[in-house]
Amino acid sequence: MSHETEETDLAIGQHLRPLLRYGMAGLLLAPGASKFLTYGTSVRFFESLGLPAPSILIPIVGALELGAAALFLIDRSARIAALVTVPIMVVAAGTAGPTWQNVGVLSAALVLIAFDTPEVRRYT
């Protein structure tokens, strides 16, 4: 890879990373919180999708979504948060159907994983 290409990738990552982090945090906060605030409704919804043990799955997924959103907001371990988010969004798209939210978060997480390098983090 040429030096010019590396600089271009670094510049893209520097500008894109904060947008991805804040966007994903915003899209994860509401569903994460709603799993706790509307627990019964969430359990029934997961049951209708055929997911196993929804009463156990709801708090786990809710905690993971809220935890990932918090990590994105405070800019700590964003890559790990993105890695945790990917399987959640794949299951969401596969069971509830692809929506702009779950496909958007999935896409953003994959891009963040690709661009979240030490060089980019150093300048953002």
TrEMBL record:
What's the chief localization of this chain?
Answer: membrane
What is the superkingdom listed in this entry's lineage?
Answer: Archaea
- GO CC terms in record: membrane
InterPro entries registered for this protein in UniProt:
DoxX
Topology relative to the membrane, per the entry? Multi-pass membrane protein
Sorted alphabetically, the keyword list is: Membrane, Transmembrane, Transmembrane helix
According to UniProt, the name of this protein is DoxX protein
Which species expresses this protein natively? Answer: Halopenitus persicus
Localization per record = Membrane
Its transmembrane ranges are: 19-39, 51-73, 80-97
